[in-house]
# Entry
Amino acid sequence: MIIDCDNDLQLLSRSCDIAIIGGGTVGLTIATSLSRAGFDTVVQESGGEFFESKSQSLNDAHVTSRPHAGIRDGRARVLGGTSTLWGGQLVRFSKLDLSDRPWANSNAWPITFSELTPYYKRVAEILGLAPYFDNEIAIWKRFGLTLPIETSDCEFFVTHWLKEPNIARHFSSDIRELTNLCVALHAHVTDIRCDEGSDSVSAISVHNGRGTSILLKPRVVIMANGTIEISRLLLLSAKLNPKTPWASNKWIDRGFQDCLDLKAAKVSILDKRRFGDVFDNIFLGGFKFQPKLRQSDEFLAKNGLLNIACSYQIKHRAAEISTKYLHSLLFNMESVKIAP
Ligand SMILES: Cc1cc2nc3c(=O)[nH]c(=O)nc-3n(C[C@H](O)[C@H](O)[C@H](O)COP(=O)(O)OP(=O)(O)OC[C@H]3O[C@@H](n4cnc5c(N)ncnc54)[C@H](O)[C@@H]3O)c2cc1C
# Structure
């Protein structure tokens, strides 16, 4: 069920077992999973069902050091969150991503690689990824393709693309049909409170877009409102209530990752068949699997680098022709006048 708090914020006052702050990629995945397991779940989403600049402006931020356009252009305040912008490409972390990387001034994550690994299969089940491969090489083997040659510097991996990248559309039938799942739109969480001396969250404060607020007391609160907004909400709550247990937690506002994207090199292919065996996209069960190449953890650690991965873009004459054709089409369309 979807409710709109701009119409009636009191609708939220119904008792709620689990509150999930944020109806984006993570929030809707967790909410669906918990509701399917029988828990009463309410998702507080500050955006609306569709993109609107009023909600999007809640993402505004002032960047004080290097310019970072992603903080504005790379996040969406809408049901489905940033999955309304992404391509839906799923990829696992490598061991090194979670480890101590002193050369990059980056501490190890508070969870380990082996703690995380079993959950990939669980996520695959929730997202309905079938067939699911926990081992990249199995995909090539399944097709009887020539296996890529591993070196100590490079390794191959395969990304798995969702059929429907917008997570709100992906879970739309669950959102419509699960009676114990409520998605509240225009429900902007502004404060998380704990009772004095307690480690547990006692209440969350929710505002709608019309300036009205309500205090909710769910049994469990899950923050899924995006890495930057989670930090912002925790910092704001700690400012309002300086005795909150996380006020001195050193992890808040740290550990962000972003990716730089560039065209790195022109590659001349010597053996087209072999190249195709390794790098052609694979389609299986309606899913796209995209083979990629990354520097091995060993190489990254030895050279003091962060993650580096690449895929190949085939550029041939046909692509150039179609781009030229498109340009001429657009140009011609500009000169067309439509009669009133
Ligand atoms: C162009 C682009 C392509 C990308 N491609 C990929 C890809 O292929 N694969 C990949 O893994 N990643 C990709 N990413 C990154 C990926 O989209 C994000 O990492 C992912 O969506 C984060 O999920 P999330 O649930 O943490 O946050 P979001 O999806 O951003 O969801 C957060 C939700 O919380 C809501 N919210 C925020 N604050 C509050 C509040 N105080 N109260 C209530 N609600 C709140 C927001 O409105 C939003 O709906 C891409 C990103 C971009 C921009």
In short: The chain has two domains: 1-87+166-256, 89-161+265-340. The pocket of flavin-adenine dinucleotide is lined by residues 21-27, 44-47, 74-75, 77, 81-83, 85-89, 188-189, 224-226, 229, 233 (CB under 6 Å). The longest strand covers residues 287-295. The two ends are 43 Å apart (CA to CA).
